[in-house]
Amino acid sequence: MEIVNMHEAKTRLSQLVDKASKGEPFIIARAGKPVARVSAIDAPDPGSARRLGFLKGQTRVPDDFDRMAEGEISELFGS
Q1: What topology does CATH give the domain 1-42?
Q2: For 66, which DSSP code?
Q3: Any idea what DSSP says for residue 67?
Q4: What pLDDT was estimated at residue 35?
Q5: How far is CA 37 from CA 2, 6, 46, in A?
Q6: Residue 3's beta-bridge partner residues?
Q7: How far apart are CA 29 and CA 32, in angstroms?
Q8: pTM given for the model
Q9: Which of 14, 28, 30, 64 is the most buried (most CB within 10 A)?
Q10: Quick check: helix, strand or coil at residue 33?
């Protein structure tokens, strides 16, 4: 994430807002300290987007998953 000082933000505001609207947020700093984060309104907060594998280690698939209820299914379909 780009960090810009207040003067640079004033000078390049239009360009920075265009980048933010495309999903590239930036931080404005005053005297070297971050004071504001600018991002698109519809952009999710950084780190809040869900990713594949977010339940890793919290679930378990049984070893016989592909054979579960095999008897009942055979009865239903007459195999």
Answers
A1: YefM-like fold (3.40.1620)
A2: G
A3: G
A4: 96
A5: 10, 12, 11
A6: 27
A7: 5
A8: 0.51
A9: 28
A10: strand
Q: Is the pLDDT of residue 11 over 90?
A: yes
Q: Which pLDDT value is given to residue 41?
A: 86
User: Which 3 state secondary structure label does DSSP give 27?
Assistant: strand
Burial 2-35 (b: 16+ CB within 10 A, else e): eebeeeebeeeeeebeebbeeeebbebbeeeeee
The domains of the chain are located at: 1-42
8 phi and psi angles, rounded to 5 deg: -65, -40
Of 33, 45, 38, give the one whose Cα is nearest residue 19.
38
């309104």: which residue's tokens?
41
Which segments of 1-79 are extended strands (E)? 2-5, 26-30, 33-38
Task: Record the tokens describing residue 11, joined without a space.
Answer: 């000078």
